């Protein structure tokens, strides 16, 4: 259910684009994002910062797309989001001396452990700092690459190709990066009991 909610605006964007056009799809994306924020708030009593940031980007660039009837604004959305994520990893690592990939990864692993073994269960996992540094760098480069690749596809291919790339290509490439991360840390995960 959570995964469906996370991707609902994107799914609706794709469906409306295929049946109507990019401007209606962009409007639906904005409305679905508002509904998504409302659901997150009702579910947990707060809305995570990343959801606010993604919504504001969708609202501003989507609003400009609809207002000016120019699809190039919405095409920039993925580039802005991926560039901000890459910049966040860079700044947090080299200015604040924090590895956000390590923090996120261990947080996810602990959440999985709690769901499988009950609350209070602590996952005994240590990933060498050098591996975490490599992963942080890999994700910085990956996110920067994706932000540039999105613009390349947007300006060198048809609107249909870009929409398909945004929905399926970006998701597929991100899945491969997650898979590479899991392969890299697999030997450091504890054995199943």
UniProtKB/TrEMBL annotation:
HAMAP family assigned: YciB
Similarity section: Belongs to the YciB family.
Protein name as annotated: Inner membrane-spanning protein YciB
Function per UniProt: Plays a role in cell envelope biogenesis, maintenance of cell envelope integrity and membrane homeostasis.
InterPro entries for this protein: YciB
Keywords from the UniProt entry: Cell inner membrane, Cell membrane, Membrane, Transmembrane, Transmembrane helix
Cell membrane listed as a keyword: yes
Cellular compartments annotated: Cell inner membrane
Membrane topology: Multi-pass membrane protein
Pfam families: IspA
Entry annotated with the keyword Hydrolase: no
Gene Ontology terms: cellular component: plasma membrane
Superkingdom as given in the UniProt entry: Bacteria
Organism annotation: Pseudoalteromonas holothuriae
Transmembrane segments: 22-42, 51-68, 74-96, 137-155, 167-186
